[in-house]
Amino acid sequence: MPFATLGLVPELVRAVADEGYAHPTPIQQEAIPLALEGRDLIGSAQTGTGKTAAFMLPILQRLASGPQHTLRALILVPTRELAEQVLQSARVYGRHLHVTAAAVYGGVGMEPQTRALRRGTDIVVATPGRLLDHMERGHLDYSALEVLVLDEADRMLDMGFAPDVRRILAALPARRQTMLFSATISREVDALARRAMAGHASVEIGRRAQTADGIEHVIVAVDKAQKRGVLAKILRARPEGQTLVFTRTKYGADKLVTYLRHEGIAAHALHGDKAQSQRQRTLDAFRSGEADTLVATDIAARGIDVDGIRMVVNFDVPNDAEVYVHRVGRTARAGASGLALTLISPDEWLLMLDVEKLIGRTFPREVIPGFEPSIAPIQPRPIEAEVPKPARSVRARVGRARRR
């Protein structure tokens, strides 16, 4: 099915074609016609399946006619990186329309944002905290608002933004279209949807907590003190494309980058303690391919949209199994293939079993010669309807990624 059959105007079909997309993804195919009808909508699909375009294209079509330079669409996102990504999507897909957009987020000065809001803009992409700052100063007029989008709603709630979101919802016109998009739908997200919507449609692509089909998962058992050495050995194989490494803490990210650089691996850190200008330079270098290895915390990684990420490494196993889904969704985007590698120490095995239970699959357990763990890996629990995959060594997997 081509984009033209979804009901989009020629200017948007042309913009999508300019980006090299011939056919919509499943979430776009299902959500765009409903959104064009003005329906309230919940869209659920794994990370990297094109959710941003699923709501941005209908918004741009709606705003192409009617008053200009008036706030008519508000998009709430959890992080400043995601705000910039969504803003870029508005500009790219709206390049043939006269629709304006601005981003509002913390970590930078308010004055440029204030000037943009005073000039008037059709779309505001915002993080909740900074948006409330502008609301308290009277910089926003919601009287003409027509569309609200809650993007990455699960992460917004995980980050403690629920009170802020409730305050924002209370200030918006009751008559509006509301769309909520999320990789996973938890009880908290369901409760938020009930507060924000009435009689909404739902689009769910794949079962909840499902990862992309193109991701190959593998576990490497290693003692905690040996994780850095194992990671350096793997990265020296230099798989083609970018590698994104996740740590639990900002301190851990900086410490790991220092070690990798000492080992001759040009790694860069991305987390909330970095200045926004430094974060942006790091992201730009990673997107362009100048930087091959990025070490990031979960929050800082939201909004990283890089098609060339061939390997995601969980240096620390996440405490929440659903976070694993978000992390590995950074690879195998738009139908590509990728490797999700988890370095797991003996104290993390129960966390990993929770991940396997959530996804409904068990992953191969491997050991790197010379880095054998002091405690043997826990063998997988039987999981119903699992489809086994042929075993390959980590060396073979990294080499396979390099040849893709």
Can you walk me through this structure?
The protein is α/β, with parallel strands linked by helices and 404 residues long. It folds into two domains: 3-204, 3-Layer(aba) Sandwich (Rossmann fold); 215-403, P-loop containing nucleotide triphosphate hydrolases (Rossmann fold, 3-Layer(aba) Sandwich). The chain is built from 16 helices and 14 strands. It has helices at residues 10-18, 26-36, 51-63, 80-93, 111-119, 128-136, 153-158, 162-171, 187-196, 227-235, 250-262, 276-288, 298-301, 321-328, 349-359, 394-403, and strands at residues 41-44, 73-76, 101-104, 123-126, 147-151, 177-182, 201-204, 215-221, 242-246, 267-270, 293-296, 309-314, 338-344, 365-366. The strands form two sheets. The chain has a seven-stranded parallel β-sheet, sandwiched between helices. The chain has a seven-stranded parallel β-sheet with strand order 10-11-9-12-13-8-14, sandwiched between helices. Strand 12 (309-314), helix 14 and strand 13 (338-344) form a beta-alpha-beta unit. Helix 3 packs across helix 4 (80-93), helix 6 (128-136) crosses helix 8 (162-171) and helix 14 (321-328) crosses helix 15 (349-359). The longest helix is centred in the first third of the chain and has 14 residues, at 80-93. It is globular, with a radius of gyration of 22 Å. The model is unreliable at 384-391 (pLDDT under 50).
Features:
alpha/beta; seven-stranded parallel sheet; Rossmann fold; 14 strands; 16% strand; single chain; 404 residues; 39% helix
